[in-house]
Dtdp-glucose 4,6-dehydratase (Spathaspora passalidarum), 328 residues
Amino acid sequence: MTIHFDKRVLITGGAGFIGSNFLSYFVRKYPNYHFTCIDKLNYASNFENIADLLQLNNFKFIKLDLSESFETLYSMLVTNFHQMEITDFINFAAESCVDRSLISPLYFTKNNILATQNVLECYRELRNKYSHQYKFNFIHISTDEVYGDINQNTDEQGTLCPTNPYAATKAAIDLIIQSYQYSYNLPITILRPNNVYGPNQYPEKIIPLTIKCLQEQSPIPIHGDGTNKRCYLYISDFLHAIDLIWHSGISTSEIYNIGGDCEIDNNSLVKLICQKVFKTNSVDHTQYIQYVKDRGYNDKEYSINNDKIRQLGWKPVVVLPEGLDMII
Ligand SMILES: NC(=O)c1ccc[n+]([C@@H]2O[C@H](COP(=O)([O-])OP(=O)(O)OC[C@H]3O[C@@H](n4cnc5c(N)ncnc54)[C@H](O)[C@@H]3O)[C@@H](O)[C@H]2O)c1
Ligand SMILES: C[C@H]1O[C@H](OP(=O)(O)OP(=O)(O)OC[C@H]2O[C@@H](n3ccc(=O)[nH]c3=O)[C@H](O)[C@@H]2O)[C@H](O)[C@@H](O)C1=O
């Protein structure tokens, strides 16, 4: 017996940090939706975060490298459309670590651009074939890093000026999406969040890395002099933003900056984490830091303007100390 679902959704990169938190929350929040997760399972994936969903009738997992399997993907999504009938796409899949992109820039280009463009091509063909019968939706997860080193409250019209290979792949994808919007009249929404943090984040990003180093009593490797600033967005606040935009009914091509309110420099962030881990404000955090060679170029800060998403009624709720309490 085929169960009817109101929506059938493809989540790419759903075994990663943000994707797995997304699926853990939304597969249960929307039992009337069917979710298919496609993920190649790389070093940062955490399949255990979504394994329990396999017992539910509205979740399916497919292990596939989106950058290398266009024919398989096309056959699944387009040729055999009526078997899966996927109409909604939320695209998380990417290699996401700046430091790794500095070591393997070509791999990041091949993976990040092709993984998304292969999905875009299927989306384009689906709309060509079925847009008179089905309403399709595509939300792409970009990043504030596409703006590069900004500190002037940049809005969504800001100039793309990526300063590292990872950010360049994300900016390139945004521009490819823009070309699809113009040339094929495809409605695609782009989200550009700040640094997202929360449970089950692979410990190479600064927050989970600092916690891991303190737990293992190993030095915390801080790039340069530790004065670089980032703005941190707790995972639940980002998921609420995605949910709001996804169900807003907006089907034009919009870009949304999704920013936290917690801008902090790396030294102060380490100090705050030390205070939380050791449960005292009098800890000397400097003893746990080892200053190491900085990135070739390390964006000083990302000051993005969030007025557009706030006009939809969204605002960040979890402040950094509270978010840290939830993951330490
Ligand atoms: N974490 C952040 O602070 C942050 C901030 C802004 C934007 N983003 C963006 O959000 C998205 C998710 O980030 P994350 O932190 O969850 O990353 P992550 O590295 O934790 O997870 C990414 C997932 O995508 C999968 N993936 C990568 N390439 C793939 C491919 N070719 N085929 C199939 N699966 C593939 C990986 O296996 C992994 O499970 C990324 O697009 C990233 O650029 C992340
Ligand atoms: C929006 C992007 O956020 C993440 O990229 P980012 O490089 O800002 O995150 P990191 O956690 O890697 O770095 C934050 C900050 O800490 C410094 N740092 C990091 C790791 C380390 O071992 N030592 C450090 O000192 C780093 O230089 C930065 O200043 C996210 O990874 C990305 O996907 C985004 O899109």
